[in-house]
Amino acid sequence: MPADQQPDTGTADAAEAVRALAARCAADADTTRKLSREVADAVRGAGFARHFVGREHGGAEGSFAELTRAVVTVARGCASTAWYASLAAYSGRIASHLPREGREAVWADSPDTVIATGLMPAGRAVKVDGGWRLSGRWGYVSGIDLADWVLVCAVVPGAEGPPAMRFFALPWGTWTVENTWDSVGMRATGSHTVTVEDALVAEHFSFDRQELLTGRNSSSDRPVHNMPLQAVAGLPFVAPVVGAALGALDAAAATVTGRRRTPAGEVKLVRAAGRIDAARLLVEQNADTADSHRLDRGLLARAERNATTAAELLRDSAGQLVALAGTGGLGETHALQRHWRDITSATSHVALQYETSAAKSHANALLGPAEE
Hints:
Elements: H1 11-32, H2 37-45, H3 64-75, H4 79-95, H5 100-106, E1 115-128, E2 131-141, E3 149-156, E4 164-171, E5 176-178, E6 192-202, E7 206-208, H6 209-214, H7 229-232, H8 235-253, H9 263-292, H10 297-325, H11 335-346, H12 354-367
Parallel strand pairs: 1-3
Antiparallel strand pairs: 1-2, 2-6, 3-4, 4-7, 5-6
Domain Acyl-CoA dehydrogenase/oxidase N-terminal: 17-87
Pfam families: Acyl-CoA_dh_2, Acyl-CoA_dh_N
Domain Acyl-CoA dehydrogenase C-terminal: 237-353
């Protein structure tokens, strides 16, 4: 169903209240490096975790466009809160690939179950009677301190040829957390390291990583659950950056008063605002394309290019806003410096780099495959 025909789930409407609360708590979250339970509960109550969960489990099966609007709204107050909300939603979409018995267990108590995900294959698993034996250590698992379940990716022996990769779902209490997240920005995302030691994981709590990459979901026929990872591109990571940049714009504009309001300052502010809006349009285009379920190679490549281009525009704009505000904007109590640090940290994510994400696929779409 096209994005303009999909009913709203209410998440975007609820996001404004989450933004206001997150903004009030942002300074404390930045200092303590964790979200408060009140903020985490507000994210859950607004419907982020259930956004992509199937209706048969009580979920909303919402659109990419609505979620993107909601995440942008929350990030205007606190980028770490928006990052947590965004990844909780997208983790629910990833969990839709689990076999039905596994999905029913994950969402047995509520479709608002919060799942954290370690996307990179960092552990190993072997087949045993009753399922898999899993061990490993996964870094940068955002929101793990607030999660009910975790999804991690591990290497498994291939039947023939090279090893394969699978995702595994584990409930709270079956992993340990090392507090390794010490980034200068996005401090309260809780992107710590998860360790699993020789856990027995039932077969219905596992699925082949190729399903996520290709978008061929053998467990759900819902369109939103059958989108390849490339189509989603950097949406989970770049949408919070858009909101953070809008927050930075608000904070910088508040400094352009009295004698500081000069023609040169106004031009700098307007230039930054234009670039932020351009980035936002690129991100919204990606969300609309994902909702349209069109999967030709050119659109997939454009989605990756849009995400990385938006990240670059937003990072540059944040730097311009800090330069405009001057020393005052860098005070520890000023929201501008927090947004600037958050944007700088978030845009370092591997999914938002030309070299690792967008350049090759879009160059091939424009020029055709390179000659050998």
